[in-house]
Amino acid sequence: MTTETPPTDQPDPSQATLHRGLSVRGVVALAVSDITPMASLLIIAPVVLGLAGTASFWAYLVGCFLAICVALCMGELGSMYPVAGGLYSIVHRVLGRPLGFLALIDYIAQGVFLPASIALGVGTYLHALHDSIPINLSSAIAMAVVTLLAVLRIHVGAVLVAVFLAIEVIVIGVLSVAGFLNWNQPLSILFAPVIADGATLTSVGAGVVVAALAITMFSVNGYDSAINFSEETRGAPSNIGKAVVIAAAAGIVLELVPFVGGLFGAQNLNAYLSSATPLTDLVGTLWGDTAKNIIIVGALFAVINAILAITLQFSRILWSSARDKAWPTPVNHALSRVHPTFRSPWVATLLTGGVATVLCFASDLVTAVTFTAVLIIALYGLVAVAALVSRIRDKGAERPSRMPLWPLPPVLVLVGIIIAITQQTARDIWIVAILFAVGLVYYYVFLHRSRQERWVPHTIAEETILEQRT
């Protein structure tokens, strides 16, 4: 067996480091922005409303409860393994190399489709402002601009995200007021749920709640990004666990309140449930087109914020995979490059954003949302199993941020995921299954044969951890 020796003019990927320029508050802001409560309301919520009608209320409640359970698992494990690889690094260390690589493949697939699915929201709402604006082209342009911003030093990205997040919270507040101060629907729409069916409303059963569950969990996904930024965060490892849970709780509240307000504030329930832009339509109906356009502009800031936070997160996952030597040596050296001035993973960022830009021309929003939802809940399942195995097998391991009520959170997550998976489309499940099969073939053909030189997980040195704590 031969050892791959990196070229002498290129640094060893395992030695690359990022700049610790984030406070815990900055990490929470990035993670909440990655959850994208406003963008999820504007882009993903219409998909849920179209699928489950007014039963989407229950789908969101159950999905958000499960999300908190997932966040508790992630918080504990993330404080134990505070590295940029995030969830794939955790699965790697707890469940072993093959499953760790499948988690990475899952993550990378999310990184390809998530930014594009959110970026399509830019085009959707620009088109709502003026129907001559092409959805796909404007989305691609927005994605390209955000990619360039993501190359800047991390604290610059964090400041931009914080400013955009403030605008996002204001818009969420306005939408909540619009709904709750103009209550038009009876409580019976929750207990006798209906769905838009052409020009009429028809009753739906509890099955649609289960069918929509994966998408609602996707809607509040993103709190795990606090772990991905841990190598750029100052402070103790326990802060990473706290940041994950705080971000999850904040994102859920910011998303759930205006969603419920909009549902009850709808004047024409059939039109609301079938609209591609229900919340902004509600504002237009109540306060006129000028108010609606102002909200759309604010919504665009929220969507841009979401794209930026997501691109920052997934570029670091890709960078970490190169540092862990998951790919052929030339690819590892390219993806692990850190910008000499900005101290950011610039090649990984450009690749992440570039692929998403291209996908903006080809993606269908509903297709991207449902497929990505399956990827997300599959990764949640691996994290829940890791949370159980870690406690049972590694009883003496230090856990800076311990989850309460163990083993209830991971058990509930696994039950919810099994139920949700049974309701997903065969097409989406087959796509994920084929993706994992290809990943396993690559692992056993290329990585497993040279396990000492390839796919070597990065571990933060003890002195680095002590530095974080001080």
Helical element count? 20
Q: Roughly what is the average pLDDT, rounded to an integer?
A: 82
What is the oligomer described by this structure? single chain
Number of strands: 2
> Quick one: overall form?
globular
Radius of gyration: 22 Å
Summing up helix and strand content along with how strands pair, one would put the structural category as: mainly alpha
Taking the sheet with the most strands, its summary is: 2 strands, antiparallel
> What portion of residues is helical?
over 70%
Distance between the termini: 43 Å
Element order: H for helix, E for strand: HHHHHHHHEEHHHHHHHHHHHH
Which runs of at least 5 residues are low in confidence (pLDDT < 50)?
A: 1-10, 461-470
